[in-house]
Amino acid sequence: MAKKYRFFYHYYKQYKCLSVHFRGKCYRVDDVVCEVPTESKWNKTQPNLVMQGWAKSLDIENNVAKIS
Q1: Contact at 8 Å (CB) between 40 and 9?
Q2: What b-and-e string marks burial along 37-55, b requiring 16 or more CB atoms within 10 Å of the CB?
């Protein structure tokens, strides 16, 4: 069984794209395809809303992040 890692993504207002955080790295992408359950997390500072969950892998193809 593959280990699952925490991920989260949010809108990156400064660059007008999405920011995906997985295994300690930040990836700027245009779209996200998420194949695992997520939950919303509200912060008092920016980014105010973050979608987070647990995933085994992150693949980026044609500037689209596929979370599985």
Answers
A1: no
A2: ebeeeeeeeeeeebbeeeb
What is the value of pTM for the model shown?
Answer: 0.93
DSSP string, 9-53: EEEETTTTEEEEEETTEEEEESEEEE-S-EEEEE-SSSS-EEEEE
Which residue ranges make up each domain of the chain?
A: 5-67
Measured distance CA(68)–CA(3) in Å, rounded:
12
CB atoms within 10 A of CB 12: 16
* Chain segment 7-36, per-residue pLDDT in tens: 999 999 999 999 999 999 999 999 999 999
Q: Which two tokens stand for residue 55?
A: 């995933």
- Alpha-carbon span 60 to 27, nearest angstrom: 9
